[in-house]
Amino acid sequence: MDCLGVIGYGQMGSMLVNGFLTSGVLQIDEVVVSSKSKRSLDACAAAWPGIGIAATNAELARRCRTVIIAVRPQEIMTVLREIVPVMDGDEHIVSLAAGVGLADLEAAFTGSVTRVVPTVTSAVGQGTTLICHGRQIGMNDALRVEGIFSSIGDVVLVEEDELPAATLLSSCGPGLLAAIIEELAGATARASGLSPDQTLVLATGMVTATAAYLRETGEAPSDLIRRVATGGGITEVGVQELRQRLPGVFDEVFAAMLERHDAMGE
Ligand SMILES: NC(=O)c1ccc[n+]([C@@H]2O[C@H](COP(=O)([O-])OP(=O)(O)OC[C@H]3O[C@@H](n4cnc5c(N)ncnc54)[C@H](OP(=O)(O)O)[C@@H]3O)[C@@H](O)[C@H]2O)c1
């Protein structure tokens, strides 16, 4: 059987296992997991009775043709040194490690290699997984991985040089937007008698509804702004303030994050 292995049962590894099995794209006997600690493996076995548990990463690599490595970037080379010697070379390695390039992965493994950037929002079946295949990829391996990740949200194929900035938006973006939601809720609480809990509910609902509106109507954000911001009205004042300040703020935020992204794999 063509099993899929997940090395690293942390935030991302557990989310992927949960998503693939809940969506039904994979069956329980098609998934094998290995992780560093017994605690994580016990949690996996308890959450998914019947799932394959490998005692070592090498054992997982012997059992699986597709291997997703979901460890932190600093740990991926250690994992590759453990698994590559027991692999035939016709397997497919899929790396989640931010900042670790295809060239580094292909230097360690001569078979098919793919970089995948997941998003935490796939836990609720939403959001975009970015996929970037290496030079050795075959059509079947590419389609299999794209199909599996399509079960937990959208999939977008990107070139490697597009990956860093796209990562900031689709994968780090939920964290950025959550920070913005906190600020909106905080400002509303400070300007009103409402509690922070109440304003957080209002802010989250408003952001969810705005995203759904844009997606369902197909309107551009500028169209929506025109609908809400009547000339001389309240929204117009706020939008003007944001348009003056936000481009500079976001350019600085992206520059700082790109610098950190580039340093991740070092
Ligand atoms: N979090 C995100 O939103 C996000 C988004 C995009 C990409 N990523 C990427 O996804 C990867 C995983 O991130 P994460 O947030 O899931 O990190 P995490 O929660 O820290 O999980 C990492 C897991 O790796 C396991 N591990 C460490 N060394 C190992 C080894 N030698 N062999 C087997 N397992 C090992 C740990 O196992 P134990 O629990 O057993 O100790 C841990 O569960 C990273 O490369 C990150 O760049 C994350």
Class based on secondary structure composition and strand pairing: alpha/beta
Which runs of at least 5 residues are low in confidence (pLDDT < 50)?
none
CATH architecture of the largest domain: 3-Layer(aba) Sandwich
Q: What is the rounded Rg?
A: 21 Å
EC number: 1.5.1.2
Catalytic activity: L-proline + NADP(+) = (S)-1-pyrroline-5-carboxylate + NADPH + 2 H(+); L-proline + NAD(+) = (S)-1-pyrroline-5-carboxylate + NADH + 2 H(+)
InterPro entries: 6-PGluconate_DH-like_C_sf (IPR008927), NAD(P)-bd_dom_sf (IPR036291), P5C_Rdtase_cat_N (IPR028939), P5CR_dimer (IPR029036), Pyrroline-COOH_reductase (IPR000304)
Subcellular location: Cytoplasm
Task: Please characterize this protein's 3D structure.
The protein is α/β, with parallel strands linked by helices and 266 residues long. The protein folds into two domains: 4-170, 3-Layer(aba) Sandwich (Rossmann fold); 173-264, ProC C-terminal domain-like fold (Orthogonal Bundle). It is built from eleven helices and eight strands. It has an eight-stranded mixed beta sheet with strand order 3-2-1-4-5-6-7-8, with helices on both faces. The mean pLDDT is 95. Bound molecules: NADP nicotinamide-adenine-dinucleotide phosphate.
